[in-house]
Amino acid sequence: MGLSREDVRKRVLSARDAGATELDLSCLEIRDLPSEIGSVRTLLRLDVSGNVIEHLPPELGGLTNLQVLHVCENALEDLPVALGQLTGLHELCFAGSRLRTLPRWLSGLRSLRVLGIDRTDIDVVPEWIAELESLEALTLNQNRIASLPPGIF
Predict the structure, then answer these.
(1) Residues 6 or more apart in contact with residue 123 via CB below 8 angstroms
(2) What is the pLDDT of residue 93?
(3) What is the distance between the alpha carbons of residues 44 and 138, in angstroms, rounded to a whole number?
(4) Distance CA 11, CA 23 (A)
(5) Which of 47, 94, 124, 134 is the most exposed, having the fewest neighbouring CB atoms within 10 Å of its CB?
(6) Using alpha carbons only, how large is the chain's radius of gyration in Å?
(7) pLDDT reading at 152 higher than 80
(8) Is 130 helix (H, G, I), strand (E, B) or coil?
């Protein structure tokens, strides 16, 4: 049995009150994140990998200092548009999710250096991926991708 919703909420509020820069909520069988996650404005790194999260709260978009976001190995089928506000994000991993397409707003994450999309349901890498000029690593293993757009190498 994983953490209860209230236990997750308490951890998030404790991180906020402590001015935490990192929060690891990985592998706790969490079903969803509380909206209070958006109040931990000091976070630089958030890891919620290895849970059973289906949807991320839009309040994550308020974490404007966030540099690393790991949401790997969850049941995500989409990513909230609010994540497009995380313009300082350097690393984003949603490998092992149920995502089928890459949302266009990802092209606005100009600081993104690492994008992990292994083991997803993605079958097309859009041409705009080449617009991510800071991108150093793009992992695409175990997808149904038949070809890559020109200009991403």
Answers:
(1) 100, 143, 144, 145, 146
(2) 97
(3) 21
(4) 9
(5) 134
(6) 15
(7) no
(8) helix
